[in-house]
Amino acid sequence: MADHYEVLGVSREATTDEIKKAYRKLARQLHPDVNPGDDAAEKFKLVTHAYDVLSDTEQRRRYDMGGDSGGFGGGGGANFGGFGDIFETFFGGGGGGQGGRVRARSRAERGQDALVRVSLELSDVVFGAHRDLEVDTAVLCETCEGGCCQPGTTPVTCDICHGSGHVQRTVRSLIGNVVTSAPCATCQGYGTTIPYPCATCQGQGRVRARRTVSVDIPAGVETGLRLQLPGSGEVGPAGGPHGDLYLEITVTPHEVFSRDGDDLLATLDVSMPDAILGTTTRIESLDGPVDLELRAGVQAGDVLTIKGRGITPLRGTQRGDLRIGVHVVTPTRLDAKERALIEDFAKKTKAPAPRLSEFQQGLFAKLRDRFRNG
Q: For the chain, what is the domain count?
């Protein structure tokens, strides 16, 4: 088997540019369109295969180490099927007649996706919500129904490319005639022209309009979440498939409740007498009124839990809880009689002096910022 370096007439230290330059020179001399002899054709095969091996870094490394030379055998391992790549590399465009048949492109294309921002209340997150959204987007043209033509007319085959969408040109070069293919400028590659475009959509098959999209937003969504509605975006050109519609969720902060995962958090202000004696009170939850019992001696920082009054998970059915942190309100303005009563109470109970104790971590710590602002 001939040495690839000898076939190209270069040294083993030749650079990639030197190998490419040598190949181009030989290809011009030996190409069958320039030199039709059988001997030239065989030499052209050898030159082409040598270039294929030596121009590829990995193949060249294996060849220099004595490995496989790329699979070229004398019985027809190489052929002229790679001419298109050669022409594209050196001259631009594609080789004529070697690749797959070029087809015209379709006018109908997928429409773009659309994004709508939706603002929700916290109650919408708990129970889910229904929204009728006004979307300004592209819709199917009712006049031509996506056909792009005036009613009663149809597209006609392009008389330049004869429906292929591409035109071929023959370019003379040093190695012979090279056939290139490019999109037809007359029909823009569609293979057809529209002599009478629809007056309503200007031949686009779609128009801009405002339409209403009805959406059921599930419970459990949160700020920043995007919900995808497949096929609810804009219609494509020439009646192509619809894109998708995305809803970007923003949840408005609630004045009383905040969210912690699937739970709702709130703070309950309790007077000192109620904290000491205990009481039953009615609070307004997002589900409506709820009776809440405070045991006698409840402490600031205690957390009261009401099961099943939180948020339904986005992909679940069991609701979280409503967790209420107790904030004991100490009176700051006392009249003389009230102050005397408190002093008498302090003497009788003999309460210990203030002292440090272990910092209480846990659930109530998540509510401490709210207490600081209380």
A: 3
